[in-house]
Amino acid sequence: MKRLGVALLLVAASAAAQDRRKSGTEFMSESTRAMQRDDTQNPAMLWVANGGALWQAKAGKAGKSCAACHGDVAGMRGVASRYPAFDPSAGRVVTLGERINLCRTGKQQAAAFAPESEGLLGLEAHVALQSRGLPLAPPADAATRAAAARGQALYGQRIGQLNLSCAQCHDDSWGRKLAGATIPQAHANAYPIYRLEWQGMGSLQRRLRNCMSGVRAQVPPLGAQELVDLEAWLALRAQGMALETPGVRP
């Protein structure tokens, strides 16, 4: 496990050293970049506002709000930049959305938000906004790095009827066109995002499932271990890059 951790660190360090990494924003049109930059134009800020209301709202049998435990949401600065991460109470690596639901079912004694629900995306975006501009800093514990290692293997694995891997598009062919769109480098530093194509917000797992469907592969359900592992690897690949949440994409 120790060797694995060292190898992953070397991969991440090498990527950072070369620093040919580009955020997805660099592959967008100037009008879409402007939409992301300006909070008064960024449609995702509607979800952030909804998340702000939920942060203050009492919920569940415990009658507690998020603020009752965590105080002002500004105190969450730095939290989103370290997820996915190993959670001792869950005994596994979880995403930020899953961590929010653990608080909801455990501390608030309320029903968990459904994946991709407006409430979960809003709270996740509201918390992540507090870390905007901070470098992604995935934890270096053994469990989180093991998840990243599994995700790295999945990233390089050919799948689906088109027999393509993530790496073939996003490492070997970034900057080229696919169905009229420019292929980015797959640095997930702006999620949850507002996509003009969706006309709404979505999680990284929704985007990953879109890609899997695009290559005609079997698509795992939201929350599946392989999706969490892929998220852990993408976070390590993007280590040191600035968090841009809430992002806007075409």
Automatic annotation (TrEMBL):
Q: Which cofactor does it need?
A: heme
Active site location: 211 (cysteine persulfide intermediate)
Under catalytic activity, the entry for this protein gives:
L-cysteinyl-[SoxY protein] + thiosulfate + 2 Fe(III)-[cytochrome c] = S-sulfosulfanyl-L-cysteinyl-[SoxY protein] + 2 Fe(II)-[cytochrome c] + 2 H(+); S-sulfanyl-L-cysteinyl-[SoxY protein] + thiosulfate + 2 Fe(III)-[cytochrome c] = S-(2-sulfodisulfanyl)-L-cysteinyl-[SoxY protein] + 2 Fe(II)-[cytochrome c] + 2 H(+)
Keyword Iron in the entry? The reply is: yes
Can you tell me which residues bind heme c 1?
Answer: 66, 69-70, 103
List positions binding heme c 2: 166, 169-170, 211
This chain belongs to which protein, by name? Answer: L-cysteine S-thiosulfotransferase subunit SoxA
Q: Which species does this protein come from?
A: Pseudoduganella armeniaca
The gene coding this protein: soxA
